[in-house]
Amino acid sequence: AKRIIELVQSLKRTAMNEMTQTWSEVNIKSVVDDVLNAMHPRLRKTKIEVVTEIDDNLVVYTIPGAIAQILMNLIDNAIVHAFEYDNPGKIMIRFEKIKSQNDKEYLLLTFSDNGKGMDEETKKRAFEPFYTTDKESGTGLGLSIVYNLVVDMLGGDIELESKVGKGTTFRIKIPLTKKNA
Description:
By secondary structure, the chain is an alpha+beta fold. The chain is built from five helices and seven strands, in the order αβαββαββααββ.
């Protein structure tokens, strides 16, 4: 019963975050926990382990709905494309605050998996709308949505590194602004 209550509360928060496109102070760890709770029914059908590295007190001013949507799409993309059916694997999610040379603050999300990786053609086209390597269940929208949220909504940038047989890493850098800037 406790697990069901937690799941329902996470789903409600995640749904609210997705609908909310307003900027607010948000604890990143709680957003990630909510997303993982919401994705739990899908993840538990796999042999994928999700590991997080996030400071409990990492609070930033951003759009929580965009962060939640980015994570959900990256996780979903990894479940569908990174691992062969029923193969064990690992997803690593790390959030940290970093500073650039000119003292600007950024939220850095490093999302990596140890799955099958991407070839050069797939890497080049990964963020194109409707491009998919899985014609049966993929829509080709997941990474395109991630790209638009990161670049257009949050003003950040995204790097993709991948090697066939070695996995994939996304580095997402989102500029942080002060609430009243």
